[in-house]
Amino acid sequence: MPMTDQPRIAVVGTGLAGCLLATLLARRGLEVTVYERREDPRRTGPERGRSINLAVSARGLDALERVGLREESLGRALPMHGRMIHSVAGAESFRPYSADRQRAINSISRAELNASLLDVAEKTPGVTLQFGYRLRELNLDTGQLSFETSDGHRRRPHADIVLATDGSYSAARRAVTFRQDFTFSQDYLDAGYKELTIPATPDGEFALDPDALHIWPRGESMMIALPNLDRSFTCTLFWPKADFAKLETDAQIRDYFARNYPDAAPVLLNLVEDFRQNPVGSLVTVKCWPWVHRGERVTLALVGDAAHAIVPFFGQGANCALEDCVEIDRCLDESGGDWQRALDTYQGRRKANCDAIAEMALDNFVEMRDRVNSRVFQAKTAAQHALERRLPGHYVSRYELVSFTTMPYAQIPDRMRRQNRATAATAAGLGVGVVAGGSVARAMWRRIRRR
Ligand code: FAD
Questions:
Q1: Relative to the CA of 317, which ligand 1 atom is closest?
Q2: DSSP H or E segment with residue 73
Q3: I want to staple 138 with a disulfide (CB 3.0 to 4.6 A). Which of 98, 132, 175, 356 is the partner?
Q4: How many Å apart are CA 96 and CA 98, to the nearest integer?
Q5: Distance (Å, whole) CA 11 – CA 18
């Protein structure tokens, strides 16, 4: 089939990426059917075990803006302007995310965001949503998808283009797992995660400062907390999986938290129940290539976590998945609607970027768990912010480039290397006056950064 004709498009999964992608495609005048294994989450409520809230930043917001959801999402978000580090002794120390203290990442309810994206998709002419459809098989030669429906039937629709947005354990990806040209890896961290809740206080207030992402760095374990609109906090405890099982009795659970998280323990009101009932989730990095596969009758493209699941320590998985969808839309613009060219360009542009954020996310685990506590790290962050203030636009921290810009992720490590060289040169006295500011200093900085 010539791909410039109207192809039959199937999107698998109505997570964040699936909904956005379906909407963007239907706005191009395409007919898109979206299949989701769950019942409509707007009716049934969120799945247990999925993260309750997400940190959404510049890339996610840019994507949401394209379907008119940026302002609505921000209106329901809680901005977090920095990290609040909690020591074992119970001391708190606030570290702003940006030198001007103005920039914030946004704590957004995953369920609400997904519901808004579903609403927009449903209202867009051309989108058909099919809930209770679990993909079991995809035949790349016949173009047939086989779904098990929640009423126990099999449905076997055909498609010309299948866009797999069915998450890190993608069923659609299984169609190509054993292809000779397909490289695939999934790496699990020893650490797993468990969600706990800090409810609002009896007088309806937040128990912690809602303007921060709270971190309790403890080396081998770490807990974080993000605020929710109902004035509760969702905490995520990261810990080697084997250690979760060591806390067997209620007393052991309480004692562990009292010793390691003494300021959180009194406000984790349902600690024992949460700890016992909430599952331990896995933290996986998925890498694979290629993302686009052609059979005789169908083209499959992997998108979002299905192509590149990453660990959550930079709060970028969803941001990155949404960015994929924007890129596909852009590539279709550039190719004049030629799907084959568009999908090749999409994977070519995105792979290096997604590999880069996967590495940065792993590195940020170490930063959050260990380095934020160290004096050297704190001094370095303070020095970086001083440079940012003196040399606005010239020195920008990695965190800011990732979270507050849409600079391609793959360019960030190189930019950091050049900045770090310049910082070292400055420290060595080459850039006299840089820290004091001024045009001579800025010129010297620019010269060093280009080297
Ligand atoms: P998913 O959101 O996983 O959606 C996949 C959809 O496909 C689901 O609706 C699923 O039901 C459906 N599906 C699955 N299998 C089938 C099938 N066989 N048939 C039909 N449908 C199917 N990212 C951030 O940007 N910021 C954060 O703060 C953040 N925090 C996180 C915290 C934790 C603990 C974790 C684990 C992840 C976090 N992430 C965060 C990452 C983020 O959750 C994912 O990157 C994002 O959800 C990926 O979106 P997606 O649409 O590709 O996949």
A1: 45
A2: helix 70-75
A3: 175
A4: 6
A5: 6
Residue 11 one-letter amino acid: V
pLDDT tens-digit readout, 430-444: 444 444 445 545 555
Total number of residues shown for the chain: 451
Tell me the pLDDT tens digit for each residue of 41-100.
999 977 765 668 999 999 999 999 999 999 999 999 999 999 999 999 999 999 999 888
Instruction: Tell me the CA distances in angstroms from 62 to 83, 288, 333, 406, 409, one per residue in order.
Output: 23, 26, 17, 8, 15
Round to whole Å and give the CA distance between 144 and 155.
Answer: 10
Q: What is the 3-state secondary structure (H, E, C) of 4-56?
A: CCCCCEEEECCCHHHHHHHHHHHCCCCCEEEEECCCCHHHHCCCCCCCCEEEE
DSSP 195: E
Distance CA 219, CA 141 (A): 50
Asked if residue 173 has its Cβ within 6 Å of ligand 1, the reply is: no
Give Cα separations from 254 to 199, 249, 386, 400 (angstroms).
17, 9, 42, 37
Measured in Å, residue 148 CA sits from the centre of ligand 1 at: 21
Q: What percent of the chain has pLDDT over 90?
A: 79
Which residue carries 């279709």 as its tokens?
332
| Tokens matching residue 386 | 């001083």
Closest residue by Cα to atom 38, ligand 1, is 312
Does the Cβ of 77 fall within 6 Å of ligand 1? no
d(CA 102, CA 72): 20
133-183 pLDDT, tens digit per residue, is 999 999 998 989 999 999 999 999 999 999 999 999 999 999 999 999 999
195 CB near ligand 1 (under 6 Å): no
